[in-house]
Structures are given as structure tokens and as C-alpha cells.
User: Fold these one by one.
Assistant:
Number 1:
Amino acid sequence: MKSRFHLRILWPFVLILAVSLAAFALLFPLVQDSVFQRAIETGKQANYIPIFTLVFLILAIGLMIGLLINIYYTNQHLNVLEDLTGAAQELGEGRFREIKIPGDVGRLPEMQELAEALQKTATQTEEQFNALNKQQAMLSAVLDHMTDGVLIADDSGKVQLLNAAAERLFKIENEQANGHSVVEVMRHYTLVELWEKTKNGNPETITMELGSAHKYLQVVGINLEKELPGRTMLLFQDLTQTHQLEIVRRDFISNISHELRTPIAGLKAISETLLDGALDDPPAARKFLVHMDNEVDNLTQMVNELLELSRIEAGRSNFEFQRSEPCDLINKAYNRMSLQAEKAGVLLTQECPSDLPKVNADPARIAQVFINLIHNAIKFTPAGGHILLSAWQDGDKVVFLVQDDGVGVAKKDLKRIFERFYKADRARAGGGTGLGLSICKHIVDAHGGHIWVESIENAGSQFFFTIPTTAR
Amino acid sequence: MSRFTLDQEIRLVQDEILLLGSLVEQAILNSVDALQRRDTTAAQHVCENDRKINAKHHAIENHILITFATQSPLAGDLRFLAAMLEVNTELERIGDYAKGIAKVAIHLADTDFPIPMHEIQQMADLATSMLHRSLGAFVAEDTIAAHSIPEEDNQVDELYERIYRKIVEAMIKNPDTIDSGNQVAWVIHNLERTADRVTNICERVVFIVSGESVEFDVSDDEPIDE
């Protein structure tokens, strides 16, 4: 530190010196007279003691006053220093406050400057701190609300950061994860291997299935050497839904190919037979043509259902809602399907109380729902069985029921039968596109209603759907 | 200084145990998956992977014994290391169960025996989930979880009963399937035993924390003997 001398601090000394000299000059004549007068009168040598006493007294008083002034100012400065030290300490701890500068510090401008400098530092630090805080809050909001999991670990394999999505994925709280090993947090050897590879500079992207929850993940390893030396980041993307969609698509392609192949193979066989000479036998040729006609009907129905479903799903299908009598809806369905039921040897009956309120429905669409449900019921009810159509009021809606005493639906299929292209294994034998129930569900949904099934295997099924009585 | 190293050693062994646990967990899930898809290659892979599990088991055993010899652990550390030695063995056994299921998968790949896959999958998911959480409770020394996990063993036993009845029905209907049915019975037996081993791991958690050897009130016998 450069040592300088501040002349300014000499003013108390100069002041005391001046006052002392003045006091001496003022008092000396009084003493001088008496001392020298007496020496002349007595003829003895002059006694100088009073003069010495005077000088001594003035010096003593001057020193005392100087000391007092010194004590006063030192104390003042100590107070200010204490205050500044306190403020500096609080600043260090991250607390910011207004620094009060005592008015008389001004006598020493350096103290004033120090206080001001400190005040400025505090304000600036506070601003930077707030800006950082804001940025941090923004980043952690992004991290916590993103659907991908993020994990950052240091080079010893300790987890430094785990966002909310990753916490949910690994079913672990942040407090249990921070500072714990990646093994303890992720609990999967494939992930630990990926972390090791990424740490060693060979980042990879893998897809895997995680544990008994059967979650499909895409995990991206990112080496953060450049940004944060020694750190490694893993990103977890949950592909479970995409994976399920993929399965549905695969099911669809395999179902639709299977269903299309059967009628096409039939047509091919018949046309070959006709070409091979059956054409010359008119009665047989006619029989074959009827077969062909049936197969073409099947194909047409399948293609129509597919188109209808894609229209409903795309929301492009127009519904014409009108006030409709529930019993009319049931009766129309009954009339259209009774012949088919009779052919299959199944008894179709209807029960409908006449006092039901009108519902807000598109009759043609509801007829389609009934036909699909009755068609299924006939398919899965052995000859001699019974199918019942009924309806009743439940609050502001009417519940419709199609009940059969057929083979029922296996418990494991109950959840999925309304899915597109889903077919319980047995259904395959009966043909169909696997679209009927899915179409029913879409139509009922569009009416603001709800469709569900209750079934006991080998005892029959009950398909319920509700239609609101009030306009949507 | 030596205290620091012992802590470090324990953490290392603990991580190794968790890795072994995850290998074993995946082995069970993979073997059941191979059974479902009747995929002999996948089943073969599980069998080969068992060697990796056994090697890891031996490595961990060595690591623990060396730690005993060089660090002379006391009290809680001693109990923890001793318990890990035992958990290590339990995990290796569960690995053998997975191999057993994989062998059945190979055996059944060419048959059309109606395997009640839905329930078996449920059973495997439950058993592996219990295993996963029990190891979590083990490293966290969480006695509350250690007490609650073995209670889920009842669900495993229920599933066992249900599947067993289905298998027997299928065998009665078609006596030609007795061999296949018997094989499936081994699969569910192995899954049931897996859940029992998990109960043992939970007992070790209580031992680490309190030093008491408890026996959870879960029947170790196969439920079919009742």
C-alpha cells in the first residue's frame, strides 16, 4: 500500500498550537511582572517557577483538548467503519440494504467516498443478483415444465440436477437424488452404461423399455465438457404413447390386409372357376355370381366403414340433430335387424316405455349405432339366444341398452374393444373390420353421450349408451 | 482418513448391488417377454446373460470380503456390508429364476398351449416392481417401505392361484398338454419365489437399521400346498 501523508489532518494540532501561543502571549505579562518585580525588590535571583508552571499548564491543557478531539473523531470514524463493515458483511451474505452515512463523516471525504463506493457496489450487485435470479427462475420454470426428463451428473457420477419430469420418471424426490450416484437415481444398467459412454466422450442416443412400468424411452447422452467441464447430461423422452400408436398402426395394417385378402381371394377363386368353364353352365355360373356379389358387398362395407370412421375422426361428418322419440329409434333398428336375427335363430325383442322424453339425436346415426351393436350381438350369440333392446330415462339423458346372452367379452378385452381395429381373438373368426364399435363410440361421443360395456364371459354382454335429452 | 475410504467402499458396493438388481429385474421381464412372443432367440439371450449376472455376483462378493478384511467395519457399517452379502445372493437366485423361465420359453416356443400371458405378465410386473422398490428401500434404509412391500406378496400369491387353476383346466381339457402345462407351472412358481426373495431383502433392511432379525409374516411355502 502506498503511504501518503494527508496534511489536512494537522488542523487540530495547528489550532491547539495557535491557541496555546496566544494564551501564553496573553498570560505571560501577568506572570512576568510579578516574577521580575519581586526579583528587583528583593534583589534575589528571579524565581522562574511560575513561568514554568504557566507553560506547563498551557501545554497540559492543550494536550488534553487535543486528546479529547482525537477521541471524539476516532470514535466517530469507528462508528462509521463499523456501520460500513456491517453493510459489507450483509452484502457478502446476499442481503442488500440502504447504507446510512452519518452527516459528519464529511470531515473526512475518504470515509464518504468509501461509503458511496460501497453503496454503489451494493446497488449494482443487487441488480445483477436480481437479473440472475430472474434468469434462473426462467430456466427452472422451463426445466420443470418440459415433458422431457433432464439429468446432469458430475464426473464422479453424482447427480447434480434432476428436473420434475425425470423425478416422475424415476419416482424419486429431488432431495433424494441430488448428490447421490447415477446408479441410485436411474436404477438401470443400460442407462448407467450410456452415462459412462457419454462421460468418456462417446455420446449416444438409445431407445429402451424401462422396467415393470413398461415405459418406452429415447435417451440422449450429451457431453457438456465445453459448457460445464466434467458434467454429463442425459435427456429422457417418453415415447410410450408413440410406441402404442405404432402398435395400433401395426395391428391395423395386419388386420386390414387380412380382412381384405379373404374376400379378394374368394373373388379370384370364383372368377378363375368361371373362366375355366363354369360360365358355360348357367345355373352354376349364377350361383358363383351371387357369391361374387356378396364378397363385393363385404368389401364395399369395409371400405365405407373406413371412410366413415376417418370422416368422423376428422370431424368432417355432418350430424343433423333433431328431437327424436327414443322408442322410434329402437323400433327402426328393430325392424331393420329382425330378419337378420331370425335367420341366425336368435330372438330379438324390444321394450320401450312410452313416456320417455325426446332426445336430441341424429336418427340415421343412432340407427347405425344400433345396427352395429345388434349386428355384433347376433354374431356372438349362438342360435336359440336372446337379444333385448330397451331404454330408460336417467336424469337429463336416456340410456339405451343392447343386451345379449351370448359368449360375452373377456375381461382383458373389455378396456380395448372400443379402440379402432381392436378385435378380441374370437371376433376374427366372425369376420368384420374391427371398426364397428369404434364408429359407435365416435357417434355417441358426437352426441355428447357415453358408451360402455358390461360383460360376463360365457353369460352375455350389455352395451349401454346415453343420449342427452337437451340440445348441446 | 480410513473412515472416508470405508464410506466410499460401501457406496461403491451399494451401486454394484443396484446394478446387479437392475440386470436381474430386466432378466425376469425379458424372459417373460420371450415367453409371450415365443421368441427362442430372446430366451437364449436371457440364458447367456445369466453368466454376466453370476460374474457380477462373484465380483461383488469379492469386493465385500476385501472390504471386510481391509477396513474392519463396525456396527452399522458391518451390518450393512453383511446384509449386502446376503442380498447379493438373493439377487443371483432371482437371476436363476429368470433363466428357468427363459428355458421354459424355449421349450414352449413350438407348442400352442394357451399360456395365460396376461396374468403372467401382471405377476412378473408386480414381482419386479417389488424387487425394484425393495432395493430402493435397502439403500435408503427405509423400514416403512420394507414393512409394506412384503404385504404385496398376497397379490402375487392370488395371481399364482388363478393362473394355476387355468393351467390345470387346460390340462384336464386336453391331456396332451400336460407337459406344456407343467412347464408353465414352473414359470409361475419362479415368479412366486422371486416375490419371496424380495421379502427376504426387506427383512435385511430392518436388520441394517435395528440389528434385529425379523421374519415377515408371509408364507414361504408355495400357496398351492395349502
Note: The radius of gyration of chain A is 50 Å.
Number 2:
Amino acid sequence: MPIDNQKLTRRDALAWMARAGTGAAVAALAVKATRQAEAGRTTWQIDPRKCIQCGRCETECVLQPSAVKCVHGYAMCGYCKLCFGYFKPDAARLDEAAENQLCPTGAIRRKFIEDPYFEYSIDERLCTACGLCVKGCTNFGNGSLYLQVRHDLCVNCNTCRIAENCPAQAFVRVPAASPYLLKEQL
Amino acid sequence: MNAMHTLLSSLCAFSRRALILSTFFVLPFSPLFASRFPQPQFDSVHQVPQAVHPPFAEKVPAWADVLILAAALAFTVWLVRKKRSRPLILSFSLLCLAWFGFARHGCICPVGSVQNVAVSVCHGGGLPWHVAAIFALPLLTALFFGRLFCGTVCPLGALQELFIIRPLRVPKGVDAVLRILPLAVLAFGVVYAVNGAGYLICRTDPFVGIFRRSAPLPLLLTGMAVLLLGMVVARPYCRYFCPYGVLLELCARIAWKPVAITDAECVNCRLCVGTCPVDAINVPRPPLNDSSRVRQFKRFIALLIAAPFIAIAFAVTGWLSGSTIAKAHPAVRLAEMMQLTEDADADDVPPEIEAFKRDGADPQLAQERSALILRSFRVGSAWAGFFTGIVLALRLLSMTRLPRNNLHETDRMLCIACGRCFPACPKNHQLQNTIKV
């Protein structure tokens, strides 16, 4: 049946044209998207200049506990005896007793250096990124405590759940080669 | 300097009032990063330590991600076309679930990459090439062989596949209505992403918490609920939510060699009909008599006339819902909050306002910006509604077509190549010599 055959071929040709068109469209989209020189791989980071310590880093991350941790820029620290990041505002005494500490998990370690200086360091395994210490240190101290996304934990989601809920738009994409925004170096 | 430091420290220690005072006196006069307490010169030999920051470790290089996806797709083609073995397809999908889901944490996946591509196309390039490749590969595969990505490679699908226990047949009408949702998710997902309101499609991914084995509770519960629903309605996410499925469907519509139940000629034994969990086997219908043919034709004409109205109705709905949808954008949310809190007490300001005030930006400017974004959301969601309406109308039109198949064949747009019908078909056994006829 030549007519049937002919019909089939025409149908086939049309199908191939449609296929080629769709394929070209997909390829064109992909190429157009990549057209400009790309900056290479990027990853999420908090700009500490924008952070207002709202506490959402602790609760919004897809990881529990959060991939955000408090870090200490030692170069900015005043080594205060009364650290506003370490002690509760109504601390009865300035010692390491849990009831005097601001950190709910006791993640800040306090080490005596020489009178009257103390060194503070963060135990990241305990830190939940609630930002209480950061708030205290930023408001009343030097602001040497700040929050950063830790890249040994962060899974680099396509869209960061904290970023979408950050009230200060403090989450930015940074090059993966230099993935930190260290406050002491900004 | 040390003495002053001590004095200040001890002063504060004794009185809470000092702390409050310092808020008033120190804060206003100090720049943002003031060194209120300069670093001491230590008498002892104390080294100021250096904080250690773990580098970004690329677990798998980008090219390997693309290569693995391509290899998985190619292997699936071979499994579905040549081996035709349900156990092998299932085992391979488990492997893909383990790798793309649990090892790679499901990011970045082709489903979410739609938004990255849309954003990059609209705002001018800059997308890493591997994301574009991950977006394009499954679509190109669908163009040739149908939706093989869905059935085997996609970790979201593979996870739901494990929960298919007693799939119910979703009534045709309900199915048609529910299948509007993926269209809307795709269209509005793109509108959200392009307008800078975040990635809707990623945010509504119910399984990402399960892949990471760690998530906020609501996310985890949603994922569980979808999986449980999947016990009776096979693959609910794939069929009634997945936006990438819409694109795959469009590509699969013109597939070169779509999934076939058997390579041999179908004998209409009907053994395959009950096996399909997603209702993707087209059963031959008896030829229509003249009166029903006329009725069908009338329905087709009516739908053809209705099609533009459907599209316009959806576009208008989109336009009207634009202002609600725009609330996902942080700038719009901020402007709204500012209006709400204008006359409220200043004690309990939301953090958004706090951040805004600290930046010292102009409230008037923020309102103007919000109005601008609102307008572009209106236009965007009108287009999204139009797209949804048009595709819906086309689907309705194609539902009234005359039955053309007189054999059992897969519905190339719905079939996700899970392979359940392969062992049910006696012709397959005959071809593979597992039974003698």
C-alpha cells in the first residue's frame, strides 16, 4: 500500500522535525544559561556585616543541628574578663558555672590567660547557631564572635533554607575557593 | 590601657545598670565594628590563636556528576529496551536512590535545575555548565526513549517506588484536575525564581529531609505523609506535583522509541492492564458508532471554542493572585510589615524591620521597590496562569480524540518505565525463552 507508506514517512519526518526542534530548544536554553563566563562553583555564606542575630540559623537549616556555627575572630577579641558573649546579663558571678553562661549548650570555653584576660573559644560540636553570644558580643563587645556556614557540614543546597528566611538578606553566594567571610579580614 | 580595660570590665560586672548604660552610650557613638576593647598586649608569651575554617570540599567533581547521570540514563535505556527485566530495573533504581539521593543528598537535581536555568536565561548567563547539563540530559533522553529518568534514575521517584503497595486507580476526571498542579508548580516556580523570591520547587521538595536524614520536623513529616499516600496512590509527587515531569512529558510526547510493553506483536491478552501503577496503559476501545462519533466531534468543537476562554480565565486568576504570590518576595514582605508596624509599639519589631532600620535605608524607596516587584509578579503570574490554561486546554482536547490504538500500548506521556508490565506480558517470556509456547 504505497499511500499508507507515504503517509507514514511524512508522519515520521514531521516527528523528526519536532524532535530536532525540541532538542535544539533544550540545548539552546542550556547554552544560553551558561553563555557568560561563569565564576566556577559557588557556595553559601553569611555576611557578618549584615547579620542581625535573629536566631533563624538555628531553626531553619535542613540539617539539625545547623551547618551554621559561631566562630571566633581572635584577632578582634578584647579578651574581656566580662565577656558579653559568655555571661548572661544577670550573671551572679563571673565564673564558669552553667547558670552564669549565656550559651544554652555551654559551647564557649573560657581559658584564663593572665589577669584580667580570658580567651574564649567555640566548641563547634556543641554550637547550635542560636546567635545569643553573637548578639551579646556585637552589641556590647568587639563583635569578634560571629556566625559562619561551616563547609565541612553544609550540603550546599540549591537554595539555602536559611537564606530564604533570613530577615537581613545576609546569606550570599561566595566562590567555593574562598568560602568564608571572616569579619576580622573584611 | 590595661587598667582602663580592667576598670570597665569590673564596673560592668558589679552592676547591671552599667550594661544598660553601655547600650545607650557606647552603641550610638561607635561604628559597626568598633573595637570597644582593644586587644591587650600580653605580659606572658601568649599567642593569639588562629581560627581554623574547614575548606569547601568538593566530594564529587562536577564532570563526574554529569558523567554518572549520563551513564545512569544510558544504562536505563539498555535495561528498559533490551533486558526488559523488572527486577533489574528495580535494583538499578535502588542503586540510583542510594547514590543520587542518600549519597549526593539530592542536590542539585534536574527537577530543581529548571529554576537555575530560568534565572540564568532571564538574567543573563553565569550558570555552571554542569547544572545546564543536568537539566538537559534527562529531557534529551525523554525525546528519544520516553520518561526513563522518572522510573529509574530520579531519586524522588525511586523512593516513592518502594512504597507502592496497593495502587488504586485514580478516576480519569480527578486525575485530569490534579494534573493541573504540576503545570502550575512549574509556571509559578519559574515566576518565583526569576523575580527573586527564592526557589519554590526546591522548597516544596518533600523528600530532601529524608535524603539528608536530618531536617526540621514539618519537612520530615510532609515527606512521610507523601510516602504513606504513595502506598495507595502510586507516586503522588511524580504525578501530581513534579514540575520537571511536565517538561519530560512534553518531550516524551514526541519520543522516537517510547517504552513498549513488548517488542513482539501484542495479542491483546489484557494481562498487562492491571500491572501499571500509574495508569499508563492504553486499552483498545471498541470502535465508536456513528452517533457517539458525532457526540465526540461536538465535544471536541466545544472544547476548541472553550480553549481560549480557559486560558484567559487562568491568566486572569494568575493576575489576581499575583499580589498574594508576591508575598514570597522578601522586599514585598518587608514593605507590608513596615505598613503594619508603623503605628504599632516599637518593643516587638520583627527582625526584618530591625535589619532594615539598622541599614538606614529609605522607607519610601522600599515601598516603591515593593510596588515594582508586585507589578512584575502580577505580569509573571498572569503568564504562568495562561501557560497552565493553554496546556490544560490542549490536554482536554487530546482526551476527546478518537481511539486509534487497537492493541495494548503504553501512554508515552504517562509511562515512567518502571517495567511492571514486562513480566506480565507472555510475549516477553516467549521472546526470552522463559516459557515454551
Note: The radius of gyration of chain A is 27 Å.
Number 3:
Amino acid sequence: MGKPMHNTPMLDELESGPWPSFITGIKRLAKDEGKPYQNMMVDLLGQLEHSYNTRKGYWKGGTVGVIGYGGGVIPRFSEVAKNYPESKEFHTLRIMPPPGMHYNTKLLRDFCDVWEKYGSGLIALHGQSGDIMLQGTTTDNIQPCFDELNEMGFDMGGAGPAVRTGMSCVGAARCEQSCANEQKVLRMLVNTYIDDMHRPALPYKFKFKVSGCPNDCMQSITRADMAVIGTWRDDMKVNQAEVKTFIADKGRKYVVDNVVSRCPTNALSLNDDDTLDVDNRSCVRCMHCINVMTKALATGDDKGVTVLIGGKRTLKIGDLMGTVIVPFMKLDTEEDYEQLNEIAGNTIDFFAENALEHERTGEMIERIGLVNFIEGIGLEVDPNMISQPRQSSYIRMDDWDEEAKKWQDRKAA
Amino acid sequence: MPPRMPIESGVPDPFQYMHPTLARNYGAWKYHERPRPGVLCHTADSGEKVWTIRAGTQRQMDVYTIRKLCTIADDFADGYVRFTIRSNIEFMITDESRVQPLVDKLVSEGFPVGGTGPSVTMISHTQGWLHCDIPGTDASGVVKSLMDELHEEFINENMPNRVHMTTSCCQINCGGQGDIAINIQHTKPPKINHNLVANVCERPTVVARCPVAAIRPAVVNGKPSLEVDEKKCVCCGACFPPCPPMQINDPEHSKIAIWVGGNQSNARSKPTFHKLVAAGLPNNPPRWPEVAAVVKNILRVYKEDAKDWERIGDWVERIGWPRFFELTELPFTKYHVDNWRGARNSLNASAHIHF
């Protein structure tokens, strides 16, 4: 017989309602007679109810890891273990999922079997950094559990001041808007710099995210140190017959109100014969019209990526978006990919050497200026990197002529 | 015997786990349609079609729930699934006649089908009291409570555009930017346990972590410790992770704030950060009714007033903030006026006034 359940009147209230209940799931584990995790989950529910009652958390960190790696385990020791001894250790293993979070059922069942043997039976799919979060195991079980997962072909994710687990969208696997081979970009970037994930030695975290188009479903501009976003530079594709079908279905007013007038650069014009004109030189590839008219409009064929650096949330100087450092580059050949990889490597090296402790890339760029950063990693300035030129006249321009010549030379090349 | 060293295999190859129709048409999709809420239909250049059925999950799943989803996938969807970053599960099938049986099965097993198009999809989710070391609240509980209330908006597509909500259990905001973000906001400086600081905290690191330089080394009761200039302190909680004796969470004074207008997408306007609209809401487990009331009210007004395809941020941009506060009947206070770095960019430097 397992340990008797704690009284959990607060948590019990989270078992009703139409949305699936995590409490019901945890209770099932706590009542799972004979399973190694049963008593752990009884006390976990006890501690969680205690948190609900007192409105405070009771986990503290520590140092737990696996041989060969300096990060990836999130250690949790209970501060109220006296009352809830069976869940006194409740560590999480971060495991990197396949890009796009594709699974067959055998793989998911294998994860369940391993986690039932070594852990709590509770798995979060997925954490905010994109990891498979195996939540809740003891210090002793971390190593054998990781060894089995590692033999299955899975590797530890990132934690601490390190390259973190990256994310890429479903992309080319199931989306016509994809302009990049997202999984290839993500695997190349993370796997090349895997040493900086497993042996944390950077000033702070460094995140890669890859979105296949400017809809940026991976939220890379606001959440990634290095965002790689698919785009195209030739004309978008217009199927005029489908445009007419769409107008016949939705009406002309709908198209004017929801497509033409919503274009941020006024690049669309509806003709009297219900065909659509696109001023592709003014189009900024925002995706809106393509999102609305999914059959009539499509991305172009000359695809590539835009790279932005420096997105992050408030701490400590305020929210920062990533900003453009590569307006467009092709990703067709292996040389193209290698060039992207070099930009990532140069960025990480520059970050490691120049950022202050606990400073993200965006804050570093804010402190030193974008020009120092892009010169530091060997890139040239481009007007697509700015919203507008400088407004302040307080700047020394000793070598204006040389810089102007560089621009002319680049244009001539 | 030498210890086993890890195989540094990194991110695995996804093709071995990908639905064969997706793998076969990789990079060659033509267009998509949404035949009903919760269902997408993608057509490939090859002419092959795949229907995706999206369902909500509780994110932190026990192995029995995962195995149940696996059995559904085996019986109805070729044995493959994928997850969205908002913890929705997706089943892919190639035969339209199998869509309705799968939808019925999921619903009968308690997994709501929806979250596509202009709906309120699953709230992105942090760890909270269940597992985090610095949580001000329990994200899982807040999310469960809200999604119960918003169930109809998840299973229908009745919003002007998609609504991406987020929760965060502290001001670090791991939940990310959202059309509506529900975040803990501390309102009192940390309470310091001076007996523990010297043993637990690397004091220079903690001093450096403070965004307003309000922390300085001090000797308290004969022990090396830290003190906080409480007038300067902005109650951000940045000192708490590196120094747990500087307890920032408070059952009474850790409140919940609501932010709106965050948008990751580049569609129409450039991406935007969310902005504060409501604060001082009690952190009230197990159901957080005060938070649900504010969120539902904002969603109601947005649904009534916004035009098709306007995200919450687009809508407020059009109608203006005075009208937003008028329509939602939320109080506008001096705390809504930003004073952080770059704040002047958020002031109205024009004669454009909303009447």
C-alpha cells in the first residue's frame, strides 16, 4: 500500500471543468499502487496544496548533473521536506525534442516507460525553451535515466549561462509559407555549438530560434538571441484566377477592408476586373495578405533567410527586440549554410568575450552600439538594419569619405 | 570501469518521427484551408492532402494521459503526432472520412478540439509552484482555471483574429509576449533573512544584478549581508534567484498584472511588446476568479469592437488607448505611464488626441 493521500481541497477544485486537468493526472500517479513514484507524487500533491494555501513556492535549486555535462538538469530540493519527505528531491531533466516536435507513438511510449522506471511519471510537453521536461526524479536516478534516454538518441538540453535548447516551427514539413529548411538550420546551429550548451561558460543564456516565414511562429524576434527567419526576395506569387474566386466568395468589400487596406506599405491594388496588383518593390514580406488569401497568394521562389540578434524580455534594461544583422542571405548550398554557421560562431565568440556577466546579446549591443557589434563579427552595415538614420548630430565622422567609398565599392561589386 | 560518457548527439533528426505524408511532401506544400475549428487541411504540390486535428492538453501530462493520446493516434491517425509550442497536440490524417471520428474520440476522452484560426488558443505556460524555484504563483492552476472559462473560445473561431495568451509566475516573464499576458507583479521590496545571506549568496553578483542599484553590502547583526534601499527598489525580484534569502514572493503583496498587445508576428505591423493595462489583482488560488473576470472582459470588448484580422494590439492602435480604457472600464493610473529607459518614445509627442 502506498502512502495515504494528503487532504487537498484546493487542488481538488482544479479537477472540474472542460479543460484537461493536470491535477487529475498527478492524482492518478499518486494512486498508482506499487509504482516507484507513487509516494513521491502523494507528497508532491501535499506540497503543492501547501503552496496553494500559503501562496508561496517551496523549491530551491542546487547542483545535480550527469557525468560529462555541466548543465541540463534542473535541480529541485524541497524546503518543506520534513512534511513531504518523499518528494524532497524533484529534479527535472531537459531533453531536446526532434525539431518541429514530431513524434511517433513508439517514441512517446518509450519516453513514458523510461520515466515510469526512473521518474515521477509526469512529463511536460514542452517547456517554454522547447525542451521535453521530464519533471521530478531523485538525484540517484538522474544518471541511469539520462543514460537510457541518451542511448535512445536523445541529448540533454541547455540550462544556465549556455547555448540553450532551440526551436523551429513545423515549417517545410506542413506549411506552404515555409521559406527555409527550418529543422536543418536549427540542427546545424545547435549541434555545431553543442559544447557551449553542455559546458556552460557564456556570460548568460544564448537562444537560437528558427521560423520559416515572417509570421514568426517561434517568436524568435522577441525571444531569441539569434533569430533566423525565412523570407524571399523575388515577387510574391499571385494566382489571379484564385483571387477572383476569393472575391466571388467573400466580396469585394472584404478584400478591400481586410487585404488591400491592411497592407503596411500600400503595395496592393485591386483592379476593376477583380485581379490584384502587387508592388513588390514596396512589399516588406509581412505575410498578412498571404495569410488571408491562402490559395491565391504565395511566397516567392527566390528564398532565403533574415537574421536578427538580441531579443529578450525585461531584465535588466527593458524589453528588446532582435534587430537585423543580415537582411537576406541564400541558404541553398552547403557553403551558404556554413556562412550562417560562421555568423553564429562569430556572434557567440564576440558575446563570450565582450558581454558582462549576466548580460544578454541585446543588452550588450545596446551598451556598445550595433556598429561595434557588426564590425566585431565581420559584417557590413546595411540600411535594412535600421528603421531610420541617426537623429543625433553628436558623432565624430573623421573618416566619412572612406566609409562612403566602401559603400560605393560594395555597390559597384 | 570508467564512467559512461554522454553521446553528444544534439538535436535529433526529425524525419524518423515525422508522419510519412509530411516527410514525403517536405518543402512542397501549396496552400491550406480551415474546414472547421480545430482542423487544418494542407494540400501539397503533389496533390496529396493532410488534415490536422488540433486538441488542447494540460501540458504537464502523466504517462497515462500520454499513452491514451498514443492509443488514439494509433487507432485514428497512423501512429504519429506533433505538438505546437502552446502544448496543443496535433494528429495528421490523409483520409477526410477519418476527421470526424477522430474529433469525436478526442472530445469524448476530454481533449477539446480547437485552437486554430481566430480562436483563443492554449495559454503558453510556465512552471509555477509545481516546479519553479522562484514562482509567485502556479501557472498550471491559472491556465487550467482560465481555459475552463475560455473553453468555448478555444473550440470556436469567433475572435477577430487569433488570441495568444501567456502566463508568467514572475516578472522574468518566461511565458513570453502575448496578446494578453497574465504576469505576477511584486509590489513590496524583498524581505531579507540576514542570517543566511553570507552563506548562500555571492554578494557582488547580487549587487550587480539590481537594475536600479538599490542593493549594497552591509553588516547586519554582526554578519555580512545586503541591504536594499527600499525607496529605490522597483520590486522586480531580480535579486531573488541569485540570493534566495531575499524573498520577493509575498502571499499578499505579490499581485497579478494584465498586459495586452504583444504580438510576435510581422503580419501588418512590426512585432510589438505587450503593455500594462491592469494590476493589483489578488493572487487567489485555486481559481483566480478576479483574473478571469478581467481577461474575459477584455476579450468580450475586443470581440465586439475589433475588425476582422485585427490582433488586440492592432485594434488598440486603431481605437487609441483612451477608448480602450473607456470600453474595458479599467482604471488608467499614473503607473501606466512608463518611466524606464526609452520611455519617452511611449509618450504622445503630437496633437493627435482621441475624443
Note: The mean pLDDT of chain A is 97.
